[in-house]
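Dear colleagues,

As part of the handover before I leave the project, I'm documenting each prediction I ran so the next person doesn't have to rerun anything. This entry is a single chain, and its sequence is reproduced below.
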Amino acid sequence: MADGIEVEQIQIIESRPKKMPMVTSMDRETIREAYEDVRSNLTDTEWAVFKFESSEIVCAAKGIGFEDFQQQFMDDERAFGYIRIQMGDEMSKRSKFLFLTWIGCDVGVMQRAKMSTDKSIMKEVISNFAAELQIECEADMDLIYFKEVLQKAQGANYGTGIREI
């Protein structure tokens, strides 16, 4: 109270966005092991997903089956995926690899912008793939779409789908 007048103090709380760490690091050994596991014909592992824990990229999951791969990506996160997909025609089958950059629809502008430099860090380890995609919505996380992209990356396609006798 000052001179009979009651003064109400108002505390202003400043709302600032959390600062994102500028330097990204990675768990290189674990990422390399997951990458080699997906590439190996001796394991059943078909995919690996790499996510951010604070400013470090880590292997978040590995597995079998496209449905499980799809479920690894959330709207509010950034991630990378590496997946082996069986391709070919009636004459030959071969594994093709796709590198995926995921930026969920709820990811902020600064984190979106940072993905290009973070992707270059990932490509230091994940270096062998037939095609690369950047996906930002769940609808594009589709096996048929992925196979179409890989098919285009293969070049000539002579198969008819039917083997004549």
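The mean pLDDT is 86. The first strand starts at residue 25 and ends at 26.

All the best with the project,
I.
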